[in-house]
Write a structure and sequence with these properties.
Helix content is about 35%, strand content about 15%. It is of the alpha/beta class and about 375 residues long. It binds pyridoxal-5'-phosphate.
Amino acid sequence: MKDETKIIHTRSGRGPVETVNPPVERGSTVLLPTREILYGDGKVYGRMGLTVQRELEAALCILENAKHCRLTANGLQSIALALGAVLKSGDHVLVSDSIYGPSRRYCTRRLSAMGIMATRFNPLIGDGVEALIEDNTKAILLESPGSLTFDIMDTPAITKVAQANKLISLFDNTWGVGALHKPLDLGVDIVMQALTKYPVGHADAMGGAVLTNSARLANQIAMCSEDWGISLGPDDAYLALRGLRSLGTRLKQHEAGGYQIAKWLEARSEVDAVLHPGLASHPEHALWKRDFQGANGLFAFIMKATPEPALDKFLEAMQLFGMGFSWGGFESLLIPCDDQLDRIEGDRIHERAGPLIRVHVGLEDPNDLIDDLEQAFAAMKV
Ligand SMILES: Cc1ncc(COP(=O)(O)O)c(C=O)c1O
């Protein structure tokens, strides 16, 4: 049975009335009949989550091919929880340089305040990462495609090095959502996702998840989550679960629209390069084809050298593309990224001709979106 079918049939709504969806139990207190049950090992308090959270965890385990799942309030918290669960003061962690900016900030600012040192490495390093391992290196944090720059890592080569050196590998799989990429199948130990993006899919809730197949790591994550008081409320969990039922169908549309617009952009005279791993022109296209099952609607392009006033005219002319953070919803978005790029020396993104623009292709008709881009490019020249 395909994942999409299984996700629709994980339902556990079996109250006095059987509904298709689980009940959203808005509760902190759970009333319990006996002392034995009160102090037993059931889920006895709202922070641990109730029916809807259990069903969301089960559906996410199907998507990621995982045995254990822990929910968090947002995606960044899933990164913080996963790293917090496996590292302690005095440890060292290797961090891919193209991870999501706030995750990188957490590694350099928060972890160092906790006595944990982080070293950033070029995401294209492959098994060369072995040379960076120190005596106290305990973990390695990966993300592919890289945030903003869409570089693809050789994940199996890196996880092989991690296993040989007893490092715990962690992977932010928000782009791959499980449906397009299953890092646990490639030897990764822990996967994190921002449910805020494609799982919720409608830009109206936030959430995160940490998944693993290791009972030992799941226990460490559970204890850290308990200690930090991490939870995902029932309404947000419900929206993420509801989003998952249509994830496969939405992704197909995001993917098709993404390809159409990426190819159109490639042919434009204003554009120097399109950074979409599914295009043959992408430098790691072969790696992507080997390790991923499909694409979504998120990619970037590099403009030819463009003066700032012209860039502003382009951005402000946009009618259908909104300018705002996040992605994965039904709406198309576009942001200039130069203000938030912070990459180590030697990263190929330093060599770009003009501004880096990230595009999220939503569920609108792609031809309408192309018309919007066309008139915005024209506005640049006025
Ligand atoms: C790759 C990636 N990981 C994690 C996050 C963080 O998710 P959240 O905004 O839910 O904290 C984001 C958000 O943009 C992201 O793009």
